[in-house]
Amino acid sequence: MIKCYDITGTISVTCALYANGKKNKTKANAIRKTIKINEYESIMEKIFACKTDDVKPGTMKKVTMDGKEIVVTNLNGEFFACSDTCTHSGASLSEGTVDDHKIICGWHGAQFDCRTGNLEKFPVTINNLQSYTVTKESDNIMIEV
What we know:
single chain, about 140 residues, mainly beta, Rieske Iron-sulfur Protein, 2 domains, four-stranded antiparallel β-sheet, 16 strands, globular
C-alpha cells in the first residue's frame, strides 16, 4: 500500500491486488481511493531523539522535538518517553529522579509511570503526562511525535 499526502490533507491510497504472490491480471491492477483525513486526526512521524548511549540505565534525558519538551527514560535497556513538564506546577521532570519505573518530580514529589505517563502518587489529582511511542533503530532512539 502506498500513501501519498497532498497539501489539502488528503491521502491517496493505492492497493495492488495479489493472487498467489503475483499481481492478479484478471482484475484491475490497482484500486484507488481518496480518503479525507479527519481534521482532528494527526499524522505521527518518527523523529530522532538521541543515541542510546546518551541515556544510561536508570537515568533520563530531556530532548526537545517538534517544539515539545520530552523526557526519555532508560529502564534496563528499554526506552520510554513522555512529556517533560509536570502537570502540577510545570517543573522539568528530567531534573527530578527515577525510581524503578517512576519519574519523581523534583519540586513537589509527584510520581508518574514513565512507561505510560500515568500519575502514580500525589496528594491531589492532577493530569497524566502525554506518553510517546519509542523505537530503537540500531543505536538511535526514535520517538513518534
